[in-house]
Amino acid sequence: MTAPLLEVAALSRRFGGLQAVRDLSFRVGEREIVALIGPNGAGKTTAFSLIAGALAPDAGEIRFRGRSLVGLAPHQVCALGLVRTFQVMRPFPRLSVVRNVMIGALGRHAGRRAAEAKARAVLDELGLAAKAEHPAGSLTLAERKRLELARALATEPALLLLDEVMSGLTDHETERLVEEVRAINARGVAILLIEHVMRAVMSLAQRVVVLNYGERIAEGRPADVANDPLVIEAYLGDEGVAAPA
Ligand SMILES: Nc1ncnc2c1ncn2[C@@H]1O[C@H](COP(=O)(O)OP(=O)(O)O)[C@@H](O)[C@H]1O
Ligand SMILES: [Mg+2]
Asked: Is 38 in the pocket of ligand 1 (CB under 6 A)?
């Protein structure tokens, strides 16, 4: 693997009596695409919240470019070049699409004009330019997913955390988004993605980390992980999700 961009070590977090993330360790290299998969409730989104500074870990270390992120607020983590999207998207529905994206760009560009130029460039890349002046609340699901991606990209990250950006999309929309994620990665952005759509995981990820009950139960190449009996068993225990094989 290339030099680690993100290094998560022995990360743990509980909610009352529930150990949501337990002793979790993994790395993401420069320019790598890593998938974090696992049944519903496995602790994937909690892991993202810990990494992105939205939740404090009970124990463990998170290093980004060698620097500890523990104790930093989300905006500080974002300023260092690490940003996440949200599984439950929260755009400002009455603001226009371009204004929503400008909110992300303002972290890098002090001037309003520069932020708007950046926002429009990102919308262009993601095929959303025609919707720039529409209120965010008027977008279709696939467009809202793109907007969520645009907001994150406008912060100019080195590492992008994507939480189920493909879920609920048609096959065609998924294929398109997979290609867009690939293009973002090709421009040098490392990606850590939580995804239930196994086709997307298989075609994008170089490495897969599998969580179950907060613990890492497998890690490896997508094809190997999909055939791992422990992984298949974990998925079969969750009727909401198809087995990844
Ligand atoms: N803020 C919270 N308070 C209490 N329990 C939570 C909270 N967030 C998540 N959980 C619980 O932690 C577990 C892991 O949740 P989550 O990280 O969302 O899983 P995943 O994203 O893998 O589906 C679940 O049992 C969930 O109900
Ligand atoms: Mg989740």
From this structure: yes
- Nearest-CA residue for ligand 1 atom 16 is 43
Specify the pLDDT at position 134.
Answer: 97
pLDDT digits 0-9 by tens, 178-234: 999 999 999 999 999 999 888 899 999 999 999 999 999 999 999 999 899 999 898
The string of pLDDT tens digits covering residues 20-35 is: 999 999 999 999 999 9
Residue 231 domain flag: yes
The answer to the question of residue 113 being in a domain is no
Determine whether 173 is exposed, middle or buried from the number of CB atoms within 10 Å of its CB (0-12, 13-18, 19+).
middle
Distances (CA, A) of 245 to 31, 151, 177, 190, 204: 26, 33, 22, 25, 16
Ligand closest to Cα of 54 equals 1
Total structural domains within the chain: 1
pTM listed for this prediction: 0.92
Can you give the residue range of the structural domain that contains 31?
A: 4-90+156-236
> Closest-lying ligand to the alpha carbon of 20?
1
